[in-house]
Design goal:
The protein contains 19 helices and 28 strands. By secondary structure, the chain is an alpha+beta fold. It has 3 domains: about 200 residues, Threonyl-trna Synthetase, Chain A, domain 2 (Threonyl-tRNA Synthetase, Chain A, domain 2), CATH 3.30.980; about 250 residues, 2-Layer Sandwich (BirA Bifunctional Protein, domain 2); about 90 residues, Rossmann fold (3-Layer(aba) Sandwich). The strands form 7 sheets. The protein has an 8-stranded mixed beta sheet. The protein is globular. One zinc ion binds next to α2.
Length: about 625
Amino acid sequence: MNAENDLKAQADQNIPEGYDPDLYRIRHSLAHIMAQAVIERYPGTMTAIGPPIENGFYYDFDLPDKLGEEDLKGIENRMKEIIRGRHSFRVREVGPDEARELFRDNPYKLELVEGLTQGGYDEYGNALPDAQQTAITVYRQDTFLDLCRGPHMEHTGEIKFNAFKLMNVSSAYWHGDEQNPMLTRIYGTAWRDKTELHAHLKRLEEAQRRDHRRLGRELELFMGHEFIGTGLPIWLPNGATVRRLIEEYIEEEERKAGYMHVYSPHLGKQELYEKSGHWEHYKDEMFPPIELKNENLVLRPMNCPHHILIYASKLHSYRDLPIRIAELGTMYRFEKSGKMGGLSRVRAMTLNDAHIFCSPSQVKEEFANVMRLVERAYRTLGIADYAYRLSLRDKADSEKYVDNDAMWDMAEDMLRETMDALDLPYVEVPGEAAFYGPKLDIQFRDVLGREETYSTIQIDFHLPNQFDLTYIDRDDRECHPVIIHRGVLSTMERMVAYLIELYAGAFPVWLAPIQAVLIPISDRHIAYAQQVTARLAQAGFRVEIDESNNRINAKIRNAQLRKIPYMLVVGDREVQGESVSVRLRSGENLNAMPVTAFEALLRHIANTRSLSLVENEKQPEA
Ligand SMILES: [Zn+2]
Ligand SMILES: [Zn+2]
């Protein structure tokens, strides 16, 4: 048996990589303190598991009665008393029999004790790497004893009582399995001090204000319906307008850059995906096949095989290359329902996709052109918080990655050299490549600082072999082309979700579903307002008129809530002077200007895709 100090030193090894050790100890200790408080206040409670998590901790309880958010304050107050009690966290090792005896009234803990006794599991029931065996230890503070590997603080008094907050109550199944009993989960957030806690709560509030699911409803951008199913959003007119404008923009950029656009079906035979390797590597993320009499059709999870068949339908000479095939390609992925929500996780998505077929000597230049397009498009959309990640193979993993060292080395070097030549910063991460080649990932960061891959550019020497794609080179020899798979704007779903949150729903003028609303002061100004509306609509702008009986302030407030960039107020003076009084959604007044002047302003801002409302500055206003 180990001494207490040894056990505490060992416990530090349980802190996950990248997790701040102080925060881990604080959060883990608070989980225990919360469990003590809950058991005291609700006798008969059984504890299940309570680990530290990102930003805080939780504990799952089997409670005698239902518990609601209104009960959290009482639990929190009791936790503060326990903190003030400066109770030591004591650890000791126990044998399996003593552990069974200590937790004899708690079936959850007994199950976990068995996992620890057998080996290969931790005290939360998670499998450990290499079926590792660990000692069974228990931690005690004050009256509470838990099956636990630590680590914890020395005593409860080391925790700042004003640096944590219980956030919510939800339900969770034991081991996440619906067949098991439903438990009550209480979440808390915890930090080093009050300032850190407040900063976190502020970020949460900001994330809620920008949440695309909420704004999607309020601004009528998209909707879901249970008759259609989870992860299958419908684009409402406002959202469809934003999407169409983004699609038109990127297609225009692609045409200028020499891409050719195609349409291809959303289905293909299962054999096609067997040949491409997707079936083997990707099957779990595809919908099950549609079984017909003589064939199986699958909803495509990617567009590459279709574009490859387009290339293969003709003979090519080196003079034809590069061939750039682009499509706003709709595809389907069988996302597990747990992780879906709004537009950011969906089961049907449309990717701003393209495949560039080129000779090996053209790869670097083509890749550089893609990067220039990426940089330009992001600048136009006002996206500034992103980073490049070079995703390489894990040399030790020949299972996941196509086995051809020379091919990998060459492709990885091409990406590196081009990024360096363009002077674009990047980090290298092994083990993140696609199965057939390395890729450049574009990482976005959301309001909460979470990083996610939005777009990728991949260099692929593998699929051209797989499909035996060829071209005739200068010396009349048959050669394999290289494929560059590239997305620029990700899927329309994720890009629009991102932009909704980036702009908190206040889109730049060129993307705004409604660009201006006419607000007549009284009924006698309606005819003039209609005239101005018609004129602007005729000129190609998206304009509405508010003919409701609301008072002028209510009309302005309404337009403000809908985040319409320009409110054009018209009364006697404006009718007289053939003008409009321009109010911006930012609250600023531009006062009266002739209709012709406003039209010129709107045209300039919209055509230059400016991010400002008044002049061509590339600065987001939100
Ligand atoms: Zn613990
Ligand atoms: Zn592809």
